[in-house]
Amino acid sequence: MAGREDGNRRAGTGSADGSAWAQELLEHLRPHGRDVRRVVTWLAGAVQGIASLQDDTGRLLAGTRPPLDEDLVAAVAAGRIASAAWEGQGRHLRLVRVTYPNPSAAGVLAVSRETPFDRRTSDIVTHTVQVIELLLKADETAAAGLRLERATSDLRLAILQLLMVEDTVSARRVAAGLWPGLLDTDTACVHVVEGTVEERDLVAEECIDVTGERALVVLCPAVDEHVIVVTPGESEARDLRSLIGGRPRTFIGGSARQSLARTATAYGQAVSALAVAHFRPDKAAVYAERTHPERLIDPVALREWTDRLLRPLDTLPHHTRAELLATTRLGLEFTAVNAAKVLGVSRNTVRARMERVETLLCTDFGNLTARAVVHLALNIQVSLTDTPAGTDSSGDAPVSLCDLLSGPAMRTWAQDLLAHLDRDTRDLRRTLRTWIAEGANAERTAQTLGVHAQTVREHVRSAEPVLERQLLAGGSDLYEVVLAHLALDDLDQPALHGVKTGLPDSLVHG
Predict the structure, then answer these.
(1) Cys bridge to 414: 223, 303, 484, 493, which one at CB 3.0-4.6 A?
(2) Closest CA to 381 of 304, 441, 439
């Protein structure tokens, strides 16, 4: 008893009942102290010796390993014996098997000290093993939860990517297992919630909570600040807006209601609306809230022009055509890298698909005006699906792009939009027009205007809040401004054969 009390005093764990070490050990089970390495370090101090934990492959997991007999360690790890004691060369050694959450694996706790193990130190080792096993089980549970969370997140992304390429049948099939009824709808809206990178996971969780998992919530693979939400119902959209009130750096943009097969288009609309939300006091915007040029053009003529422009793609199998169009929509809206991340393909695949569309349409996506016009056609194809095309007459010239853009409503819209730039004495309108003509290249624009490239960027950046559109980021906002310039003849029309000139299809695509 005297020796035991002396040992307690040296270890700094003495108490009236000699069990203070148990309280210290229990502290390691509190949330702030759950660390196997700290437990092994504590054990070494409590028994005034050396302690280590290794797995069944011999890899050291914690502590300092004393000299060990490999055969004895292997026997303990394999479960042939539960524990072992050894004495020699002035050392006393204890080996105890540590059960892992995975029954096929195990670890070995080794404790070595100069004096023999008495009842107290033996109890400390025994209870420490129990604590280590609890911590390992907790770690495995947490890891399993994290793996499940990641798998669920990956599954949501896979569903979104299927919707992006118009494969709604597969998307519904994948969703049915975990979220029955989620996509039991013909139409939906897409919302993009933008916050900080640090808060994105929390924002995504709140999106799931407020929608009651009645919406598809996806961490955007392309933009680290974005959460994409596909909302089948109106109530989910209202619930999402409630999230941004108390968050000063959070914005939300929503699309018009689209069929599930047009999710890619809805996504582009949501991103465009998000740009507007940055200039709104309530930090929210919906795509339908803004007047867009396609709504100012005769729908029948617009449908005829669109069908004729995209007719070369009609010869492709349905799946291939849908894949090319979905990829091109995103590729025109975002960079090839970001479009690839959203679709879950390589950027080379995105470029290859877009190059194939370029070839079929006899156009050049390197030309900004051509990109804007093809982007218009792709949006029209979606929004005017139910509009009947005009009846072609052999004696009538086909509708040209100039015909579409020269209508009074379209010209009035363009004049009103660009007139906002005239209020600035820096001639933002001239800079913007030249920048578009030079393919949004600041250096070439600077050479043309005889100014510094940074001045060009500042002018374009200054035009963004005036027009309530993001320009430097490209995409729908920029294309609308390009169309406004085309409507006022401030830019040359792109070389889109059969659309600009009105040549017969046989001369264009023959």
Answers:
(1) 484
(2) 304
127: amino acid identity, one letter: H
Does residue 441 sit in helix, strand or coil?
A: coil
Q: For residue 66, what is the DSSP state?
A: P
Q: What does the pLDDT look like over 199-209, one tens digit per residue? A: 899 999 999 88
Task: Report the 10 Å Cβ neighbour count for 315.
Answer: 10
Q: How far apart are the first and last CA of the chain?
A: 105
Nearest-CA neighbor of 419 among 432, 408, 407, 401? 432
For 195-262, strand residue ranges (E) read: 216-219, 226-231, 251-254, 258-259
Q: Which residues pair with 216 in a beta bridge?
A: 230
User: What is the rounded CA–CA span in Å between residue 490 and residue 370?
Assistant: 15
Q: Helix, strand or coil for residue 57?
A: coil
Residue pair 478/371 in contact by the 8 Å Cβ criterion:
no
Closest CA to 119 of 41, 18, 42, 16: 18
Q: Residue 95 pairs with which residues in a beta bridge?
A: 84, 110
Q: What are phi and psi of 361, to 5 degrees?
A: -90, 0
Rounded mean pLDDT, 22-41: 78
Q: Which two tokens stand for residue 328?
A: 């091109």
Instruction: For the chain, give percent helix, strand, coil, nearest 5.
Output: 55, 10, 30
- CA quadruple 370, 374, 375, 377: dihedral sign: positive
Token output for 175? 């969703």
Segment 182-228, tens digit of pLDDT: 888 889 999 999 999 998 999 999 998 888 878 999 999 989 999 99
Task: Give 130-163 pLDDT, tens digit per residue.
Answer: 888 888 888 877 777 777 778 888 888 999 999 9
